[in-house]
């Protein structure tokens, strides 16, 4: 009977033994951790380089500080500034730009609107602006906006005349003079904060 039982029993399948996980030596652990650190550092450097290139040649972020561009831009409003456009193009009248303050270009940045272009004659008379003796209609300003004082200037080559939209509360070219093109950082492109103001900064035409 025992013989019959042995005949009916199925032979056990050959089991494959799982090899033990080899333990790393201290030297191997050191090389492994060093390799991981190298890869992490390499990608970190790549990200820093790419971020720097984007910041200086494509776009940057600017947070509006102050009331000089109200009612179109407000203090605390965060915008993306398009550097790319001015690296390969020319600033235009009506552009809202972020610029280095000519009086302290290393530490202060302003946001203003370009009013006068290089070589133009700009005049303010009786709260109106004239470019080469032609009246400039500024439909982006509230009705009754007061623009003072009366003045007349001829811009040099490469110089821009800028003003804030809040004409009675803005430090701009009426006070500190024109700004050279090299001080223009870029054009205001997109508002991304607060969310209620999200959108592309509108273009203006005259």
Compute the number of helices. 4
What is the arithmetic mean of pLDDT? 84
Name the poorly predicted regions: 1-8
Measure the end-to-end span.
110 Å
Radius of gyration: 33 Å
Secondary structure: number of strands: 12
The string of secondary-structure elements, in order, is HHEEHEEEEEEEHEEE
The coarse overall form would be: elongated
Query: Can you give the helix content as a percent range?
Result: 10-25%
What structural class should be given to the helix and strand makeup?
Answer: alpha+beta
**How much of the polypeptide forms β-strand, as a percent range?**
25-35%
What can be said about the biggest beta sheet?
A: 8 strands, antiparallel
Write structural notes for this entry.
The chain is of the alpha+beta class. The chain contains 4 helices and 12 strands.
Question: Which characteristics define this entry?
Answer:
206 residues, alpha+beta, eight-stranded antiparallel β-sheet, 12 strands, 28% strand, elongated, disordered N terminus
Task: Give a summary of the structure in a few sentences.
The chain is of the alpha+beta class and 206 residues long. Helices cover 23% and strands 28% of the residues.
Secondary-structure blueprint of this entry?
Blueprint: H1 2-8, H2 26-57, E1 59-63, E2 78-82, H3 84-88, E3 96-100, E4 109-116, E5 121-125, E6 128-131, E7 134-135, E8 151-154, E9 159-163, H4 173-176, E10 179-180, E11 184-193, E12 199-200
Antiparallel strand pairs: 1-2, 2-11, 3-4, 3-11, 4-9, 5-6, 5-8, 6-7, 9-10, 11-12
């Amino acid at each position: 009977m025992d013989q019959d039982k042995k005949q009916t029993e199925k032979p056990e399948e050959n089991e494959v033994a799982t090899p033990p996980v080899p333990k790393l030596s201290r030297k191997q652990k050191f090389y492994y951790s060093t390799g991981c650190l190298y890869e992490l550092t390499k990608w970190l450097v790549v990200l820093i380089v790419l971020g720097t290139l984007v910041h200086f040649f494509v776009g940057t972020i600017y947070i509006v500080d102050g009331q000089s561009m109200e009612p179109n831009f407000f203090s605390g409003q965060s915008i993306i500034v398009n550097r790319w456009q001015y690296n390969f193009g020319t600033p235009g009248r009506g552009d809202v730009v972020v610029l280095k303050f000519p009086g302290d270009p290393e530490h202060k940045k302003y946001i203003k609107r370009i009013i006068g272009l290089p070589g133009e004659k700009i005049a303010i008379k009786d709260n109106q602006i004239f470019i080469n003796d032609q009246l400039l209609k500024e439909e982006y300003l509230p009705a009754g906006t007061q623009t003072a004082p009366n003045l007349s200037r001829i811009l040099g080559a490469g110089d821009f005349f800028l003003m804030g939209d809040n004409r009675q509360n803005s430090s701009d070219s009426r006070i500190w003079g024109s700004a050279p093109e090299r001080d223009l950082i870029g054009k205001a492109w997109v508002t991304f904060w607060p969310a209620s103001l999200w959108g592309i900064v509108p273009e203006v035409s005259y």
